[in-house]
């Protein structure tokens, strides 16, 4: 990355770290604008990784998701080998000449011991401040862990217990926008931990009411509104999404319509819309939070895996993967499919836009069951299967960027339609 890009990131992080605003207060955004990417040409693959995810003990290991750090200096991936969190610097070195070799080794690898359910970055993480370089993860039969992304040390744990006084694992985790609390999803409840008070102290809020109304089931996804308007969305395996107030977890309304258990929720950049995706559900639903009217976008084939999607920082386009190995881009104003590019030769399970640069990261892979007649069948995997890649997009000039800025608001006319991918 160039010096100019690094300077812009440092300026934005300094403004965030010096902010004295309250969680519900909207602060003035920095003047930096994410460049408008060109979608008439496929992106260039800048970095590629697959070797380090395959070992003799688990040659069929696959990746389950990817998340950029808030400052854009590195990204996390979750894997099936119970070493879910790989932190890799995007500016660590140049692309390897040998296509069968990883571009560079992961900066750190954390062994969680059990299957990872969810993970998230501290919202004010900055590579220039080692104290802030942490992320939280939750794994099966374990408490919530706060890891140091640099040293791989365990900073602290946040423990919840059930009625038998045994550890209860969270199925989803998320920092509130102020970075002071960790919200964790459990069965029929959300527990809130104070970041500065690790241990077993927490607030517990039932997602059900006395008359059995509300949101039931395992809370599998959590998202906060980026505008700091105090709204929180929770997705459940019972195919519903609920909107709450962050300060007291008051239930505002429950959204029905997903065909599968909700596995991913994300607000639009203006906070007025919510996008949800489900397991074994071919649709991403767009909800107008002000009217609770849904608009449906076609996303991917039916799969048991979580398919992670993301919205570009400009807020105009949504990118999502699928079983066809493609990343599909949709226009959020019209719901129309815009373009796609080949990211892998198997299921693209994760996709994430870079927060500042015209780049994105993708992960791929799925569970393969070994053929008893072919005990070494795993050796046939190519470099484009069970892999992670970083993509660099072409982008418009500053003049074109300004000219198109008046069309980026999602509050334009939204068309209620089902958008079908031409490749299906």
TrEMBL record:
Gene3D superfamilies: YVTN repeat-like/Quinoprotein amine dehydrogenase. Residues 1-29 are annotated as: Disordered. It holds the Pfam family WD40. This is Telomerase Cajal body protein 1. It comes from Escallonia herrerae.
């Amino acid at each position: 990355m160039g010096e100019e890009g690094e300077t812009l990131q440092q300026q934005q992080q300094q403004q965030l770290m010096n902010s004295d605003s309250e969680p519900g207060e909207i602060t003035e955004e920095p003047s930096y604008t994410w460049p408008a990417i060109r979608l008439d040409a496929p992106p260039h693959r800048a970095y590629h990784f697959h070797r380090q995810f395959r070992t003799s003990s688990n040659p069929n290991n696959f990746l389950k998701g990817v998340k950029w750090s808030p400052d854009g200096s590195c990204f996390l991936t979750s894997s099936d080998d119970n070493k879910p969190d790989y932190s890799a610097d995007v500016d660590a070195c140049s692309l390897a000449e040998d296509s069968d070799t990883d571009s560079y080794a992961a900066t750190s690898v954390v062994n969680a011991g059990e299957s990872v359910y969810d993970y998230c970055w501290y919202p004010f993480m900055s590579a220039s401040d080692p104290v802030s370089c942490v992320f939280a993860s939750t794994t099966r039969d374990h408490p919530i862990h706060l890891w140091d992304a640099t040293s791989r040390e365990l900073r602290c744990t946040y423990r919840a217990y059930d009625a038998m006084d045994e550890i209860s694992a969270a199925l989803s985790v998320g920092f509130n926008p102020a970075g002071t609390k960790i919200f964790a999803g459990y069965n029929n409840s959300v527990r809130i931990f104070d970041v500065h008070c690790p241990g077993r102290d927490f607030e517990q809020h039932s997602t059900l009411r006395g008359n059995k109304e509300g949101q039931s089931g395992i809370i599998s996804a959590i998202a906060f509104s980026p505008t700091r308007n105090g709204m929180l969305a929770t997705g459940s395996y019972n195919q519903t999404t609920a909107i709450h107030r962050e300060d007291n977890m008051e239930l505002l309304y429950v959204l029905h319509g997903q065909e599968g258990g909700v596995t991913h929720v994300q607000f639009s950049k203006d906070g007025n819309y919510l996008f949800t995706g489900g397991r074994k559900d071919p649709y991403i639903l767009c909800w107008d939070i002000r009217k609770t009217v849904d608009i449906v976008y076609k996303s991917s084939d039916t799969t048991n895996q979580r398919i992670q999607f993301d919205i570009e920082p400009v807020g105009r386009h949504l990118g999502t993967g699928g079983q066809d190995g493609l990343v599909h881009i949709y226009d959020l104003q019209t719901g129309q499919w815009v373009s796609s590019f080949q990211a892998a030769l198997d299921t693209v399970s994760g996709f994430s836009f870079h927060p500042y640069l015209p780049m994105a990261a993708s992960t791929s892979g799925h569970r393969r069951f070994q053929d008893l007649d072919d005990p070494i069948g795993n050796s046939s995997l190519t470099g484009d299967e069970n892999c992670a890649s970083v993509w660099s997009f072409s982008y418009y000039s500053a003049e074109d960027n300004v000219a198109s800025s008046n069309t980026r608001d999602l509050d334009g006319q939204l068309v209620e339609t089902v958008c079908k991918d031409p490749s299906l």
